[in-house]
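Pasting two entries for a bug report.
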Amino acid sequence: MELIPCIQTLAHLNAIVRWPEYRTHVDCNDIMLAGDEAVYELIDKMFATISQCFTSRTINIGMDEALMIGRGRYYDLHGDTNRSQILVNHIKRVSEIGKKYGFTLIMWSDMFFRLATGGEYYSNSVKINEEVKKEIPNNVRLIYWDYYSTDKNHYDTMLTAHEKIKEDTWFAGGLWNWTGFAPHNGYSMNSTEAALQSCREHGVKDVFLTTWGDNGGECSRFSLLPSLFYASELAKGNTNKADIAAKFKEKYGIAFEHFMLLDLPNTPGVSSDKICDAEKYLLYNDCFTGLMDSTLAGGENEQYAACAKQLELMKKDENWGYLFATQQTLCEALSVKAQLGAKTRAVYHSRNREALKALIEDYQNAEQKLDCFYKTYKKQWFIENKPHGFDVQDIRIGGLITRIKSCKDRLQELYDGNIDVIEELEEKQLDVTGNGEKFRGQPLNYNDWMKTVTANVL
């Protein structure tokens, strides 16, 4: 087994740029200032450290999604410059540093496409400038990354385009754990199967599968075991699903179909060719402002209650029970919370005192279930991760519980006659998804906590 380091040498350096020492290294946003000697000194130090920590002489240098390259401080210093040339010149400098330490470099390929198409990566008709292709250093190989399709023809088209830029392209697929608390094994297996078929036909030799931690990294990486194992069997040429399931049970001590139940919180009524993270945005959807209420079709509480029942028995599994406990308690919380905001608005405008009393009890129930979810989720986190990062979960889940209490208290004031109106519930709700009534109840991937919990600035 070879452990290959994966770093960033252009964009996605959003954590480092907050520190004063590195602010002069920045072009704009989280993008390094290409051409700046201090930037290359920093990259040299990265390579020096990595060369001591890893035996591998292959390194992933990133360089993806630098959409604003050359449009910030670089523009102030150098004026309007061909952005493809900025990218290539930067790659050359990083390449020379890599050679100094004996590294072969691999990098995400999307910026070559985005700069040629005005921002689009997955384009059917991209044409890369021949001069740009010639300038890509010989110790740099491209990685075509794609997690977004279950159509083999899509991968065929993109691999053909990559073959025209540089030989020996790598491929990176995705096992979806980066959007919400629950995994997307079903979708991951469908997309991986299509991608691997295409890679085999195109003679791609180097393939890896990614898991990421976008927007909080809530989902357990171990919850992706079914799709990871499935991919490994496909890579060996085994397409017999019954045989794969039998081998999975023998290796992990749990039935394949049982492990797949971890997908349930994000898939009530959603097919496995779609990505939906309703278990996250409905959890954090505010009960008074209700930015995500426009996605509700009705029946969500009952759907999550049914999911909780299915997950209940698997909590007893000796090795993997903690994963099911997290998803089960999440579904229990959502069996009250998912429609709580919509119900609140309906009860408020009905002015029915008995309904209002029952609604306040729902809030109390939601508090208890959310506290239970928090405790099981905390246990999962500390089994699998360092404590770093759980401060984010404390703030988010703790804030949610406090907000539930705050809303409940104001409803109680309304019930007791101490106030006459709740201002947020008087406002007309807007559709934050921008999709209108036709989208109600459709699967939505909205993995943005800050834009879910409030229309204000956090």
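Entry 2 (this is the one that rendered wrong in the viewer):
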Amino acid sequence: MSEAGAQVSAQAGSAGEELCFLPATELRERMARRELSPVEVTRAVLERAERLQPLLNCFITICRDRALREAQIAERALVAGETHGPLHGVPFTVKDIVNTQGVRTTFGSKLYEDNVPAADAVAVARLRAAGAILIGKTTTPEFGAKSLTDAPLFGRTRNAWSAAHTSGGSSGGAAVAVAAGIAPLAVATDGGGSTRIPAACNGVVGLKQTNGVIPHSQAADAFGNYTYVTPMTRTVADTALMLQVMAGPHESDPWSCGLPVSDYLAAANPEGDLRGKRILFCATPPGRPIAAEVAAAFRAALACLRDLGAELEETDGQRFDIEPMWRAINHTTWLARFGSMASRDAQKMSPSLVRQLASASQVTGVAHQEAMFARTALFRYVQSLLSEHDFLVTPTLSRTALPLEQDLFGRITIDGTEFHDLRANWFPLTMPFNMTGHPAMSINCGFGEKGLPIGLQIVGKFRAETEVLRLGALLEGSQGFLTRWPALEG
């Protein structure tokens, strides 16, 4: 793989590898018609995963034997004409902080290196019940606690487009596996941008749905939750397909109770236009940087939206710069969950996580509650914006993927200028929508000079995933980036 090169896709290395780049929507239809075999598809995906793992380092565990057994069962069911689910025989991966029954789930931590859950997370159980085949657990920083995917347990995960750049995080392994043609569907998570950041870095689709749409059965604080189990795919239609299976109420998640399941697949049909739709846009909060190539790609995406008939209006984004509030809420959550571990075993943990836990000890109970008040005010502000507009669109990141060796507390460079605070200057516009719960999806909107992908974030009304998917599908169809994928040589 080139050091920093976006190449036209080398999908056609072999017939087997061509299967690896087929979308899940096509795979499931062709397998249902018995034009493709679940064993053939699973074997091709596993072989690609194993061949590229030394290059990309995007898996902690590959489930070869189990996946092939499940594929054989799926194939026999098709031959016998048995009723099957909507994802019958389709391969998928799961981020290694989401529980998988009988499959090691490490949370990227040496402290959980041998942890094997007794039950699947609800979202995983639903994918399996629909017939999907788990091929492996993807890399995550320890407990998903940063926007760069590296951990003492496994090392660094490389960007699918460039070995010299980060995959983003914390769902970096999930995004890389999807972009590299290893599996069309990936289960990710998002606590401050952890799905959308790596989606933007690797040129794939990452949706953070509204709170409760997909039940989060592992959330320690279900009522104050701002973290999400999410779909990650190469196409908007595949995201809709995953969401269709993963969504629906469950007794473990109070936000999900009573929520109906919409027709997400129908919503992702890229037909029609955007006439009558009003779209707010914001390039960056005041005082925050944006790379010239990101700004240019963002302007091109806005022009595409305008050509589709949308009415555009700019907003200054002044109230979206929420780093202090997010830190007070998020870091104290981490302190409550991981503080005792750090007291006992700090030497085995990621230094960046230990440092963030230490900073949280300075947050008082009053300061935490004030941050919660600010969270409510932010929700009401976004509600007011979207009461008169259908969407808000922003760049997902202020620049393309950072260098592979980037430190969470190190400076980042944007167009030759250094900035001290990585979170606030690289992804200031992802965190707000974890706090408010509104759906937000990153899709590719272009490539920078070094061939690295650039992401566009689409934010919709509360529980309006169908509208977000429709806008994403229309923009995806208009931009024409789906034929371009990284050239990889493992």
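Dev reply: Rendering is fixed now. As a check, the viewer should reflect this: The chain has one domain: 11-479.
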